[in-house]
């Protein structure tokens, strides 16, 4: 429950202050129509979402509320019991009332590198202005680098705390500053 509350607080902090007005945006930070990319996390052997993945989805959903024109890209393959990470994320988003026409499913990736390689073209095809990357604090640095290497215009990062207090605080500061600084 603490993780869910932390995710919501991080997302709300982002939604309330991380999307600066157009005049205040640094070069290359166009938040007019970002893709919100939620990174997968391994399912249980029975094909169910683990708490970390559930919390990532809730965090991404909170961010998406601030950008009603934007799609959510759910990314992750690694099938378990006939289910994929992306498929289960889509199902949860739909269950929570998120519109199906705003969900883009990438269900082939088996790693963070592939999440980036497969999601960046989907964001471009959806005519988005860049990517807001959603994951957990212990995963964010690697994800940022993988998406930058794949050519993504990462506008901001949003992570929920899942590590040591030092990691969580450091990543929270990076998340808050991410709309104002280069990523990758």
UniProtKB/TrEMBL annotation:
Gene3D superfamilies, sorted:
HUPs
Matching entries from PROSITE patterns are given as: PROKAR_LIPOPROTEIN
Q: Which Pfam families match?
A: DUF218
Record's keyword annotation contains Plastid: no
Q: Where is the DUF218 domain?
A: 35-158
One biological process term from GO is:
Gram-negative-bacterium-type cell wall biogenesis
Alphabetically ordered keywords of this record: Signal
Instruction: Please give the CDD domains that the UniProt record associates with this protein.
Output: YdcF-like
Signal sequence extent: 1-24
Q: Which InterPro entries would you find in this protein's record?
A: Cell_Envelope_Assoc (IPR051599), DUF218 (IPR003848), Rossmann-like_a/b/a_fold (IPR014729)
Gene Ontology CC: plasma membrane
Query: Could you identify this protein by its name?
Result: DUF218 domain-containing protein
